[in-house]
């Protein structure tokens, strides 16, 4: 069995659950549509959190930078990789409107995993694990609704994690730039 066949089979298995329950379909479409904006709002909402404000703000900025770096990496990947969406290849049936851009990597997975990885890499374990759970749910929802292959969301997750790993040593806590940024508001 080739890797594509394994990827298509895993994708088909997850997507085959779509249509069995209107409530689950609705939830997965909803998670897919507003998961990223909700995570961004959850990160932004931490800005005014009480204790450890300086440390928290540094991590919040690092999460935002990881998000942006991850999506930038995706744009570079898209210059070289033009993967057909699984619904166009007859692998899945789609629950939402068609997308005009290529399938690999998943921007949704990149964005959410970048946020989770930034929190985890900066030692904010409790919040990081919540963000990680949300990222996994968003990634699964993208396959469930038929818009991505499993490997698309795994590639997006890796891009997000790599972005957070790149940001970690480059945006250091306590530097002048860090103090300027976290001093805002």
N-to-C CA distance: 56 Å
Rg, alpha carbons: 17 Å
Spell the H/E element sequence.
HHHHHHH
The rough form would be described as elongated
Residue runs with pLDDT of under 50 for 5 or more positions: none
Q: How many structurally independent domains?
A: 1
Mean pLDDT: 92
* Class derived from helix and strand content: mainly alpha
Helix content: 55-70%
Say how many strands there are: 0
Amount of beta strand: under 5%
Q: Give the biggest sheet.
A: none
Q: Can you count the helices? A: 7
Protein name: Phosphatase PAP2 family protein
Keywords: Membrane, Transmembrane, Transmembrane helix
Plain-language structure description:
The chain has 185 residues and is an all-alpha fold. The protein has one domain (52-182). The protein is built from 7 helices and no strands. It has helices spanning 3-15, 22-45, 53-78, 107-121, 125-144, 150-170, 176-182. The chain is elongated, with a radius of gyration of 17 Å. Residues 58-168 form the Phosphatidic acid phosphatase type 2/haloperoxidase domain. Pfam families: PAP2 (PF01569). The chain crosses the membrane at residues 27-48, 60-82, 102-121, 128-147, 153-171. This is Phosphatase PAP2 family protein.
Task: Detail the topology: elements first, then pairings.
Layout: H1 3-15, H2 22-45, H3 53-78, H4 107-121, H5 125-144, H6 150-170, H7 176-182
